[in-house]
Amino acid sequence: MLQDVPTPTPTLHEARPFVLETERLLLRRPTLADVKAIAHLANDLRVSINLRRVPHPYAQEHAVEFVRSLADEIRNTVFLIECDRAAVGVVGVDWREPKAPELGYWLGVEYWGQGFGTEAARAVIDFTFEEFDIEHLVSGARVTNPSSRNILEKCGFQWSGVELHRFEALGSSTPVDRFRLSRGVWSSLKNWGSSTKRER
């Protein structure tokens, strides 16, 4: 998830650097200054075994590669999640399949269970549907990860089936619950909070 970001997709507005703000969180583009914090959070097996393209152990070199992969990304849809100026995780949209952009997210273990995942995901979902001409988002969660499934369901995603996906940290494939959120469902739910976009 979110380890490299491919070809551009049509946007409704010209992309510029910005941050998203929610009640408790600030979402911004990761920089090389964040490498140490990202590596610290992602280098926990409890995190990496739930992410398809994140290895374990996860070293600072992996975090550097991740941040550099975003440098020329014109869509600006991958964000470092901060709470009280501390990095707590990453959230964003992967455009490998332009007709089926995929929401992904992860939090450091010490930040689990506080609602940060749902809050950050909702902000990125709103931003993506508002800024890009897409009809739906997809996402997934390992069948052994009910917390991630819960986040998706709180955001209006509907279960669409089970697929096998390879997870780098596991070195094998494992079942993943797949989910889909249509623009129509999002439109009926989008009053769920008050995230704001602020250009830098």
What would your notes on this structure say?
With 200 residues, the chain is an alpha+beta fold. The chain contains six helices and nine strands; from the N terminus they run E-E-H-H-H-E-E-E-H-E-H-E-E-H-E. It has a six-stranded antiparallel sheet, sandwiched between helices. Strands 6-8-7 form a three-stranded antiparallel sheet. Helix 1 crosses helix 3. The protein is globular. The N terminus is likely disordered.
Characteristic terms for this protein:
single chain, 200 residues, alpha+beta, six-stranded antiparallel sheet, three-stranded antiparallel sheet, globular, disordered N terminus
Brief rundown of the structure:
Helix content is 27%, strand content 30%. By secondary structure, it is of the alpha+beta class.
Q: In order across it, which strands form the biggest sheet? A: 5-4-3-2-1-9
User: What does the main sheet amount to?
Assistant: 6 strands, antiparallel
| Overall mean confidence score, pLDDT | 90
**Shape descriptor:** globular
Could you tell me the number of beta strands?
Answer: 9
The run of helices and strands is EEHHHEEEHEHEEHE
Helix content: 25-40%
List the helices and strands and how they pair.
Elements: E1 18-21, E2 26-28, H1 35-42, H2 45-48, H3 60-69, E3 78-83, E4 86-94, E5 102-107, H4 116-131, E6 136-142, H5 146-154, E7 158-167, E8 172-182, H6 183-189, E9 196-199
Antiparallel strand pairs: 1-2, 1-9, 2-3, 3-4, 4-5, 6-8, 7-8
Helix pairs in contact: 1-3
